[in-house]
Amino acid sequence: MNIVPVIISGGSGSRLWPMSRELHPKPFIPLPNGETLIRETYTRAAALEGVKHVVTVTNRELMFKTADEYGEVPVQNIKNSFILEPMGRDTAAAIAMAALYVAETDHPNSIILALPADHLITSDSSFHVAVLAAASLADEGRIVTFGIRAERPETGFGYIEAEGSNVVRFVEKPDEETAAKFLATGRFFWNSGMFCFPAQTMIDTMDELCPEVLVQARAALLSAKKTEATDRTSLEIDRDSFALVPAISLDYAVMEKAQNVGFVPCAFGWSDIGSWSVMSELTSRDEHGNRVNGEAIMHDVDNCYVQSEDRLVALVGVSDLLVVDTPDALLVAHKDRAQDVKVVYNQLKSAGHEAASLHRTVHRPWGTYTVLEEGERFKIKRIEVKPGAQLSLQAHQHRSEHWVVISGTAKVVNGEQELMLTTDQSTYVPCGHKHRLENPGVTGLVIIEVQCGDYLGEDDIVRFDDVYGRL
Question: What domains can you pick out in the chain, each with its CATH number?
Fold first, then answer.
């Protein structure tokens, strides 16, 4: 039996703002154990017996960040493929493209295990048992869903009513009274959003139940730009083609209509980490019920959660608060209103505020940059370039730049010049000059960049050459 895990990595994780941003979403937030959800998901998938190919469906902007996360996992002989969406069109589109791709590259009867990238599972052994049970049902030509034994009358989850290995019905998020009645029957499970099925079975089922999704997904896949690298294959989906795919979830498009749905009950310590209240439970509490990640001083404080990356946080005389501090944004919320954090995120996004999409430290394929200070007509950045990496050959229409090497060696193209700079050396890049920064060394390169000009936005870039295909 050939199992191909398909990791679905989409969404913004708006309820976990300010740690989660559009270009640094929930799967990449460090957990208290230092791991990330997407790295744990990949580790779990790659460890399944016989797995040789993992497919990830994600946003193009997140591919290099995802590849870096996967690179931290010590696995061998795993082929990685990335299907890169130009925009979100919900899970039916992602699953359709993955099924078509796996049927072509592996085998039509390959068993796909579809996994969200941002769910926590604490028992890998129980997870493997559940996957084997699901794969056995899938081998019979069924589309299998995983149900989590409901522990409380949760109103934020969809429910599955099941009888043995058969699904009776799917129920959308109920009110608390209805959810409590569900629990009393013992027949209802939380819908995990995980699925297992043969690639061809999903294709045939979609052809019957949501043909427009399948037709447009196939067209988008056929027009994709394919790139082969030493460690991965990537398929960049064309924006215009993908925009024609109906935006609908797999639950609505397939699961609630199909007749061949199977069911596996699970008990492997599952959580979707859907709010800061849930995230806080991953940290042990003190005698006053407080949970702290970082450095905090508490006086007369009960049942609070504090997460701080860099600064000391002090709380006095408060209870039941969520306090999440990042270098550029601070969240203070009552624990009972944790779900409403998404309202703040949506307001920021509607206003075009940078705090909805970026952190002060931004990850790029070649490394990171951190905005240290900015004001009228100037911005100061700390730029770190990974060994062997290089930025694109580019120019700016509205700003000049001054680079000072702090550590490492910089290979610089500046107009017609090519320079090698070391610690304490610098160069000035006038507005309009073609330039490129490269790290030819085996250790990290760190520079300070001072920008001056009328406009300092990140979109003031004209690229002439780029090893990461961002022209």
Answer: 3-271 (3.90.550.10), 276-343 (no CATH), 361-465 (2.60.120.10)
